[in-house]
């Protein structure tokens, strides 16, 4: 009888080890697949240095369709075009005064070089955080499009500001409008 009990215990221990090994393999494989598919979107990419900018004439483009106010060509030190600084606007929580952003996008429209909040009138202690230095820095070097961390899909997932969902989503829409303008109108 002691051997039967020992066998049951040993059998249970073997089953536990097999289940733990299978779980570890599944987790490891899942992380590798996620890293292969989404890896570049989660990490910041190297960005080109912008040495100077010159304003473009956008009168011949459908700028209003993208809520674009102004575009500047971004040049590196050698004079090569490395991107476009696109000024856009979007309404956030404050439905009377829009947020004005400058999104600097690579020439192919795939890389977000930087974001600058030009003007905002969002609510105190929540949405107005987009005007602080730390907020726009989270976008530097992200692959486009940018998505809210709560959205599914391929793109760089960005955490919104807690309690400021309308503002956070407005910033993402403005950046993606700038990106679409570059890829659909300028490329």
Question: Helices, strands, pairings?
Answer:
Layout: H1 2-42, E1 52-55, E2 68-75, E3 81-90, E4 99-106, E5 111-119, H2 134-137, E6 142-143, E7 146-148, E8 156-158, H3 165-186
Parallel strand pairs: 7-8
Antiparallel strand pairs: 1-2, 2-3, 3-4, 4-5, 5-6
Describe this structure in words.
The chain has three helices and eight strands; from the N terminus they run αβββββαβββα. The chain has two domains: 1-42; 52-186, no CATH class. The radius of gyration is 24 Å and the shape is elongated. Helix content is 36%, strand content 25%. The chain is an alpha+beta fold and 187 residues long. The strands form two sheets. A six-stranded antiparallel β-sheet has the order 1-2-3-4-5-6. β3 (81-90) and β4 form a beta hairpin.
Indicate the radius of gyration in whole angstroms.
24 Å
Order of helices and strands: HEEEEEHEEEH
Major β-sheet profile = 6 strands, antiparallel
As a percent range, the share of helical residues equals: 25-40%
**Strand order within the widest sheet?**
1-2-3-4-5-6
**Overall shape:** elongated
Instruction: Count the E strands.
Output: 8
What's the multimeric state?
Answer: single chain
Contiguous low-pLDDT stretches (5 residues minimum) are none
Distance between the termini: 80 Å
In round numbers, the mean pLDDT is 87
Number of domains: 2
Q: How many individual helices?
A: 3
Structural class: alpha+beta
Beta-strand percentage range: 25-35%
């Amino acid at each position: 009888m002691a051997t039967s009990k020992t066998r049951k215990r040993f059998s249970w221990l073997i089953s536990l080890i097999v289940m733990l090994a299978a779980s570890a393999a599944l987790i490891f494989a899942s992380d590798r697949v996620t890293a292969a598919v989404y890896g570049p979107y989660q990490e910041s990419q190297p960005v080109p240095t912008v040495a100077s900018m010159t304003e473009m004439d956008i009168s011949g483009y459908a700028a209003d369709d993208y809520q674009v106010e102004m575009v500047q060509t971004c040049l590196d030190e050698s004079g090569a075009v490395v991107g476009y600084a696109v000024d856009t606007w979007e309404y956030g929580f404050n439905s009377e005064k829009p947020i004005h952003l400058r999104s600097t996008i690579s020439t192919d429209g795939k890389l977000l070089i930087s974001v600058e909040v030009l003007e905002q009138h969002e609510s105190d202690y929540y949405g107005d955080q987009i005007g602080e230095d730390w907020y726009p820095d989270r976008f530097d070097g992200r692959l486009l499009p940018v998505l809210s961390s709560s959205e599914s899909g391929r793109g760089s997932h960005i955490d919104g500001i807690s309690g400021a969902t309308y503002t956070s989503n407005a910033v993402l829409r403005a950046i993606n409008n700038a990106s679409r303008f570059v890829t659909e109108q300028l490329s």
